[in-house]
TrEMBL record:
Limits of the Leucine-binding protein domain: 24-360
Protein name: ABC transporter substrate-binding protein
SUPFAM superfamilies, A to Z: Periplasmic binding protein-like I
Species name: Tropicimonas omnivorans
Record keywords, A-Z: Amino-acid transport, Signal, Transport
Signal peptide: 1-23
Pfam families found in the cross-reference section: Peripla_BP_6
UniProt family annotation: Belongs to the leucine-binding protein family.
Keyword Transport tagged: yes
């Protein structure tokens, strides 16, 4: 197999595309491999490149090789739309994977929907698939589901009154709104509601106000990127001992490294089986796929895979399975096959799609995790 490499254009880097010049099936991707969301896009890009090479070495899809045309949008929604346009009009791809963030996803989604190209997003906001768009799917749990999983755990621990400190980025703002919508279903009152911006470097004032609010049982921080790590360090520096929850937006080893092992000790969040691959029991339905991906990624890149790379793994699995099931690389046939996905086991959960559900996961796919001794442990 040969490697076809696109060249960088100014700040619009196009990363190595794995495949062959004569590939029959062209798959596109636009990811945030650099910039502020690189912690999402970099492992996603590495995962797709690795999986395409593996697939082609094994004979491709029914004997046809896959060519991955992958662009780095740097987390810029405008660049993401530009690259999606290029993928559809110039590169003539049959489907797209990408959208590391909610912002870049929504730029790609509107175009994919207009052009009739199946698109699987790797971002978390519920608005990506609710309401359902005909050609748009996603692999991560929604922010609403994350709220529900966290509130289930809080309810089990007898917590009824919480403080919330949320990022104002697209993901943080969306999850803040979703948590407010479902809190009452779990008899939870949000007694303090603070926010911070993407560039803020100190959230001590907001945390102090939460600490000084009477009756707070726990603190929840919806957000992603460096913000939650700063919040976690500030929380530790203030000596707050109220139970602390983060979102699945920071479910990776990189968060522990950025926040600090001692500072993040005891933090709970909903995550995927991938983070506790070595703890999965023999009978766990996800054990085989998680272990296989974990081992291959470590061997290829010399580092542990992240939850976000797992989202790309599952998107690629869903897309290639749909192409096989469709028996065609026609975009409409692929879309129909994606929607008919039934019981496909990935690193994030077991996917069963329908006309009304373009995610295909339920809360059972989430694992409630806790940071213990600088690593991940299951609390279920």
């Amino acid at each position: 197999m040969t490697i076809r490499t696109t060249t960088a254009l100014l700040t619009c880097a196009a990363i190595a595309a794995a495949g062959t010049a004569g590939a029959e099936i062209r798959l596109g991707a636009s990811l945030s491999a650099t910039g502020g969301a690189a912690f999402l896009g970099d492992p996603e890009a590495k995962t797709l490149e690795m999986l395409v090479e593996q697939l082609n070495e094994e004979g491709g899809i029914d004997g046809e090789e896959v060519e991955l045309i992958l662009y780095d949008d740097g987390g810029d929604p405008n660049q993401a739309r530009t690259f999606a346009t290029r993928l559809i009009e110039d590169d003539e791809v049959v489907a797209i994977i990408g959208g590391s963030t909610t912002g870049t996803t929504m730029s790609i989604a509107s175009l994919a929907e207009d052009e009739g190209i199946p698109f699987i997003s790797l971002a978390g906001a519920i608005q990506i698939i609710d309401p359902v768009r005909e050609y748009v799917f996603k692999t991560p749990h929604t922010d609403r589901m994350a709220c529900e999983k966290i509130f289930e755990d809080m309810q089990a621990r007898g917590f009824t009154t919480i403080g919330m400190i949320s990022g104002t980025d697209g993901f943080g703002a969306s999850m803040q709104a979703q948590c407010k919508e479902v809190a009452g279903d779990y008899d939870i009152e949000i007694a303090a509601d603070e926010t911070y911006g993407p560039q803020d470097a100190d959230m001590t004032p907001q945390l102090t106000r939460i600490r000084n609010t009477d009756g707070i049982d726990a603190i929840l921080n919806p957000g992603f990127g460096q913000g939650p790590a700063i919040v976690t360090r500030n929380y530790s520096q203030l000596g707050i001992d109220t139970p602390f929850y983060q979102s699945h937006g920071v479910a990776s080893d990189a968060f522990i490294e950025l926040a600090g092992a001692s500072e993040s000790e005891g933090v709970r969040l909903p995550g995927t089986a991938l983070l506790i691959a070595d703890l999965l029991e023999e009978g766990d339905a996800q054990r085989e796929v998680v272990t296989s991906y974990n081992d291959a990624y470590r061997e290829r890149y010399g580092e542990a895979p992240s939850t976000f790379g797992g989202y790309a793994h599952d998107a690629f699995l869903l897309m290639t399975n749909a192409i096989r099931e469709a028996g065609s690389d026609d975009p409409d046939a692929i879309r129909d096959a994606l929607e008919a996905t039934d019981g496909l086991v990935g690193t994030t959960g077991t996917y069963t799609m329908s006309e009304e559900d373009h995610l295909g996961l339920d809360l059972s796919a989430f694992r409630m995790l806790e940071i213990t001794d600088g690593g991940w442990s299951s609390v279920e």
